[in-house]
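As described in the Methods, two query proteins were run sequentially through the folding procedure within a single session, without resetting any intermediate state between them. The first query and its resulting structure tokens are shown here.
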Amino acid sequence: MDLTIVWFGIITFLFIGYFVLDGFDFGVGMSLPFLGKDDTDRRVIINTIGPIWDLNETWLIVAGASLFAAFPEWYATLFSGFYLALLLILLSLILRGVSFEYRHQRPEAAWKRRFDAMIVIGSAVPALLWGVAFGNIVRGVPLDEGFNYTGSFFDLLNPYALLAGVTTLLLFFTHGTLFISLKTDGELQQRARRLATRSGILTIVVAAAFLLWTTLAYGSFWSAVLSAVAAVTLIAAVLANARGREGWAFGAMAATVAFAVLSLFLSLFPDVMPASNNPANSLTIVNASSSAYTLQVMTWVALISLPLILAYQGWTYWVFRKRVTRAHIEGAQAAH
């Protein structure tokens, strides 16, 4: 098989992993003002992702590094053309990470409120802008003959891309509330379940509009099939949550995110960044890729490293599989 296709598939897999895993991290962060009735609730919510959020973000680092090595032209065009949006995402991720580490360093309520607000902002901004970025990649952007982006930042804020951003924002929000329902108990779990039902219904409406637009305007047969599967699993997640089957609900939502991202990548293939002004200027898996030798070396590295990464990630989730409860937090407070 052509190694350019293999590496397009690997990068697709890495972004699927990132959006499935860091997606619920974003949702957990955005849920703080809706579910955190007091500081103990907020600590429970944050602790559901406390041991794993930074591990989830490593998928983005690996995906970015793989993109740089396998498709340097794609990487260069993407990061030069979308630099402001990607910079905002990076700053938001830094803001969120700092807040996780510093909110508990002082006991004052005002101190914690400020860092809680930064967690919400640091989760909502990437959740929105990742959708805007990928919406523009699928839609196509103006490129010159040297594959340089010739538009402006505000050209990226078109109706289709903004709908994509709202879709990812709602998907991740619902994904996060389902994760909280899976990882907590008692009243907090019940509130998370009710919130996930309400946000899930809104997500179904918005995601259906986005997937239909994508299928009609930019899709292929297989991307349309995967979009339909994503729609079915999204409905299944909301129904399972309403019946109190939090494990099935979270699994179905993870599948929804995975199938939705896969459908977007398949709607691109064999392009990696279509040129909206002139199809001849489009970046494809051929003209954007590294040399055959580079891809061969990278393939051997991936065959060795990816199974180890997946095994470590699975082991980490197994170790921290138990629910986080108010009793745990209150017991820790009493010990101090």
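Immediately afterward, the second query was submitted; its sequence and tokens are:
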Amino acid sequence: MSRIDIHARHELSREDAQNAADELARDLATKFDIDYGWDGDTLVFERPGVDGEITVDDESIHVQARLGLLLALLKGRIEEEIHDYLRSHFNCRFTP
């Protein structure tokens, strides 16, 4: 199983950061047919072959996903989509 683990620093309010995570999940849901919903400050998403969460706090967004065998082939594309989206829409800075 392949994993995605992305941390992004932001300067948004918590509400705006949650909206950013929600918009990202909606975008990924459209492109990759993912179901998602909020559990407190964590947006949980899944579909056959992938599951994960996007956690939002006052300073950062943390995206974690576990990709099954077939989606592991798209790992680079999925990571690029997440990075590009967070950079272009929310001017996020990434930490290791």
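The domain at 2-89 is CATH 3.30.310.50 (TATA-Binding Protein). We note this only descriptively and draw no conclusion about the first query from it.
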